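User: I've been trying to design a sequence by hand for this structure and keep getting stuck. Would you show me what you'd pick, starting by listing the structure so we're on the same page?

Assistant: Good idea, let's start from the same input. This is the structure you sent:
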């Protein structure tokens, strides 16, 4: 039985225990960058996971819900319900990225728990030059890269870098 629309993002979360929405609006041009921080990342595989995340972001910016859907983990889609996933992508992810101007200047990358992959904590710069946080998690499932989670307009404390007084403050993963 598919989960309700309000429950599926929770099911889609494999490694998000600290997610807490916080306002993250700021002027995009205020900070030098880019700032990249890593934690528990397999550098040999990180580039491939990042390329896949970038491909998902490009599909979202293009409004290509069908392509985004094909990139979602089949296991997550089966557990959550394909219709619920498609609705989330169409109702939340596509409108978020419709405002996309460019990728923001900071990224935090962490490993994943329970699956080979990386979680990317990023910002997009909107057409109105606001920074808007989002998260894309890419894992390997049956030797294929898939998106196992995407959260939009969600600042994750202790994972996202934060812009403060024109300077990026990033998590210290040591």
């Amino acid at each position: 039985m598919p989960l309700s629309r309000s429950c599926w993002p929770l099911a889609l979360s494999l490694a998000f225990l600290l997610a807490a929405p916080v306002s993250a609006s700021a002027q995009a041009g205020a900070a030098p960058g880019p700032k990249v921080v890593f934690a528990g990342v397999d550098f040999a595989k990180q580039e491939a996971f990042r390329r896949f995340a970038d491909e998902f972001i490009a599909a979202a910016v293009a409004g290509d819900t069908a392509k985004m859907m094909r990139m979602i983990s089949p296991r997550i889609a089966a557990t959550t319900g394909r219709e619920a996933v498609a609705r989330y992508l169409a109702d939340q992810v596509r409108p978020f990225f419709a405002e996309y101007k460019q990728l923001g200047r900071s990224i935090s990358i962490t490993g994943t728990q329970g699956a080979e992959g990386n979680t990317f904590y990023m910002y997009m710069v909107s057409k109105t030059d606001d920074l808007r946080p989002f998260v894309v998690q890419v894992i390997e499932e049956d030797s294929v890269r898939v998106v196992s989670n995407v959260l939009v307009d969600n600042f994750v404390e202790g994972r996202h870098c934060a812009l403060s007084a024109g300077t990026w403050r990033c998590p210290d993963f040591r």
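That's my pick for every position. To get oriented when you compare it with your attempt: The longest strand covers residues 100-111. The chain is about 30% helix and 30% strand.
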